Amino acid sequence: MAALLQTKGTDAVYIDLCEVINHRSTVVALDDHFHRDLARVIGTKILALGTEVVPVITGLFSKVPGGLLEQFGRVYTDICAANAVVGLQALELQMWKEVNV
């Protein structure tokens, strides 16, 4: 997606979150502390790009104890977005979903 945006003249950068969690750490619970740390790291990565760059994030964030699907189900992308919003101290999050009506 970042490459497509770049071909259209938008300064976009892909942010890889696959290794955002330090696997040598002692993470055993996906509690408030885990989410605060995750939000801080994601926010820091986005803010490092500056205000003129569009960040592209897939929603897949690292390996977690027990696996993303086991721990969060199919909403792990929503969890990633929510943590990004907290890390940015944003006022609003909008999620648009594909829905068959």
TrEMBL record:
A molecular function annotated in GO for this UniProt entry is: aspartate kinase activity
Top-rank lineage group of the source organism = Eukaryota
Organism, per UniProt?
A: Setomelanomma holmii
Cellular component, GO, one term = cytosol
Family to which this protein belongs: Belongs to the aspartokinase family.
Please report the name of this protein according to its UniProt entry.
Answer: Uncharacterized protein
Read off the lineage from the record: Eukaryota, Fungi, Dikarya, Ascomycota, Pezizomycotina
Example GO biological process term?
homoserine biosynthetic process
